[in-house]
Design goal:
The protein has 589 residues and is of the alpha+beta class. It has helices spanning 6-12, 22-51, 56-85, 87-105, 182-212, 221-250, 252-271, 293-302, 305-316, 325-332, 335-358, 361-384, 390-398, 416-438, 445-467, 478-506, 512-536, 549-584, and strands at 15-16, 19-20, 113-118, 121-129, 135-141, 144-150, 156-159, 165-169, 175-179, 399-400, 402-403, 407-408, 476-477, 541-542, 545-546.
């Protein structure tokens, strides 16, 4: 009796919105995994700067390091699944490790004790609620108990109880920091490291399983991935509302605990599938037949030490001295930064040289186009991912979070705007591209990339415009921030859905896997540079709060204006060279 291939039998089976029914379970699994991931992401930079009371420079650097490693490890996890584990076992293992990481974050210990250093002495800082509902910071100077107040010029005034200034410390002469428990810092770093490793197994392989639902040439594939992509945004939408709410209402442990619960739901969906995923994502057959899964699992758990060491190095790295130049800056980067930049700067030209020697003229030209677009992709994600760092801190410090005067939202919850707009606009953009395609007027990939870059810049410039309408407390209405996310979401829809497809179409067939790795490497580099941009937007804090909201508003406005203009300018450049790139792409669209 003839055997019906799995892909063919799946096509003949009952469907889910016209797609294989297995897509529903994978959609749900990804939804809950992203629920956990984005819920934790909404809290991370606030957790670092408020609970551990790290200065903005360290908080932004740690966030960038975390996000960059999240995009690095899928390359390794994908290789291990392809050769040994199979996608399904890799997804299960990744889910368990990530859930453990989120759960460990619940144990952050007591808040770090704020300190202030001036006159060569470090003193404890106390935080007290005032009659106006705001917190004030106090420090002892001799026998006097003085309130800390930042001035517009960056200096710090120490104010007596009667409101007079006891003394003024010049900019840089007053440094806020904190006393932290080394144990709880270690626990936090191990938790982040576990999430990084688990994500490496989960993220690439759940997508691989979706692809395996469709036979080669099945026209439903792109639509299936679009549905799958909606699951990502639905999951992030819910978590970015609920996790920050719980963190404020009950404590950080509650927000991270909900993220862990979401991750466990994802594991349950894939582990107890009732046989619905039988035959999909199974371990490869071949080789000597030995099952190496246990060895891989143990090695992966041991490998948690690697990101832990990189995180630790990021924490202790000393910034480059002023005036040391680009060379001095690069040498002062943490190990992770050096490795990322070296790999990208050396790897991209090396692949092009190989393509020139091994491929045809047309293949080489298509590879050149792919690499150029990958470089522009770095710029987009560098700025777009400010959402989790500098934009979240801006929301916390310089945004009036009132919604029509009815209720207020938290800084972490502002990240839900992006997911909301993606869910709302994705069908509209899909219909728009389809209509333009039928009319023969759909823009090509380089033009879409250029529109995305101009859009991400325009979003920042829109928010800068809003800073001119700040109230007397130096806070802008939350709708200016929502407007930025609306513009950024439209920009994302011009670049994110076409990026991976572009790589598969332009790459030389025998190295398409490597080029996928380069694509994720570019996003990893972007995340790291995004952390550097967040460091540039750093504002002096004491006890996790800025000492002068006027200074912080001006700082954010200045940085956002600069990166907005630069991004828009780079987008215009790409728009200008897009006809040349289109010729290099030889009809790929």
């Amino acid at each position: 009796m003839a055997t019906i291939p799995a892909a063919t039998s799946a096509a003949l089976a009952p469907t889910w919105f016209g797609h294989p029914r297995q897509l529903a379970r994978l959609f749900s699994t990804e939804l809950w995994e992203r629920f956990g991931f984005y819920g934790m992401r909404a809290l991370l930079v606030l957790y670092l700067t408020k609970h551990f009371v790290f200065e903005d420079r360290i908080g932004g650097g740690m966030y960038g390091a975390y996000m960059s490693m999240v995009y690095l490890t899928p390359f390794i996890g994908g290789l291990l699944a392809d050769r040994f584990l199979g996608s399904k076992r890799a997804v299960k293992f990744g889910a368990i490790v990530m859930a453990a990481g989120y759960f460990v974050l619940c144990f952050g210990g007591p808040q770090a004790t704020p300190t202030a250093t001036f006159d060569g002495t470090t003193r404890p800082v106390t935080i007290e609620a005032q009659a106006d509902g705001k917190d004030a910071r106090f420090v002892a100077d001799g026998t006097a108990r003085l309130r800390i107040k930042g001035n517009d010029d960056g200096s710090v005034a120490l104010v007596r109880p009667d409101g007079t200034t006891a003394r003024t410390l010049a900019k840089g002469a007053f440094v806020g920091d904190a006393v932290r428990s080394p144990l709880y810092v270690t626990v936090m770093l191990l938790a982040l490291s576990a999430i990084v490793v688990g994500n490496g197994f989960f993220k690439p392989n759940i997508s691989t399983m979706v692809g395996s639902l469709y036979a080669q040439g099945d026209k439903r594939r792109d639509a299936g991935f679009t549905i799958f992509y909606m699951g990502i945004n639905l999951g992030s939408l819910g978590s970015q509302i609920l996790c920050p709410f719980l963190a404020v209402a009950f404590g950080w442990w509650a927000g991270f605990g909900l993220a862990a619960a979401g991750m466990l739901v994802a594991f349950v969906l894939i582990q107890f599938d009732g046989g619905k995923l039988a035959g999909y994502g199974e371990a490869p057959v071949g080789g000597d037949g030995r099952d190496r899964s246990l060895v891989i699992y143990l090695a992966a758990i041991a490998a948690i030490a690697v990101p832990w060491l990189l995180f630790s190095n990021t924490l202790t790295a000393v910034p480059a001295a002023v005036g040391s130049g680009l060379g001095g800056y690069l040498l002062a980067l943490p190990i992770l930064g050096k490795a990322l930049f070296a790999t990208f700067v050396i790897g991209v030209p090396a692949i092009l040289v190989w393509s020139y020697r091994a491929g045809s003229t047309q293949e080489f030209q298509m590879m050149v186009a792919a690499m150029v677009l990958i470089v522009f992709n770095v710029t987009f994600w560098t700025l777009f991912e400010q959402a989790g760092s500098s934009l979240t801190l801006f929301a916390d410090r310089n945004t009036d979070m009132s919604i029509f005067g009815l209720f207020t939202i938290t800084a972490g919850q502002t990240q839900f705007f992006n997911a909301f707009f993606i869910v709302l606009l994705a069908p509209i953009f899909a219909a728009m591209w389809a209509a333009l395609a039928r009319a023969g007027r759909e823009p090509g990939i380089p033009v879409k990339f250029a529109i995305a870059l101009i859009g991400v810049g325009a979003g920042f410039l829109f928010l800068v415009w809003g800073t001119h309408f700040a109230d007397a407390g130096y806070k802008v209405a939350v709708w200016w921030l929502a407007g930025l996310y609306l513009i950024h979401s439209m920009a994302e829809l011009c670049i994110s859905p076409v990026g991976l497809s572009m790589i598969t179409k332009l790459s030389i067939a025998r190295i398409v896997g490597m080029m996928m790795g380069v694509w994720f490497l570019s996003i990893s580099v972007a995340q790291y540079i995004g952390g550097i941009i967040a460091q540039v937007a750093s504002v002096a804090t004491v006890g996790g709060e800025v000492t002068n909201l006027h200074v912080s508003l001006d700082t954010y406005a200045g940085v956002f204006q600069t990166i907005g203009l630069v991004a828009a300018g780079i987008g215009v450049v790409l728009l200008a060279v897009s006809p040349f790139l289109k010729r290099l792409m030889h009809g790929v669209d």
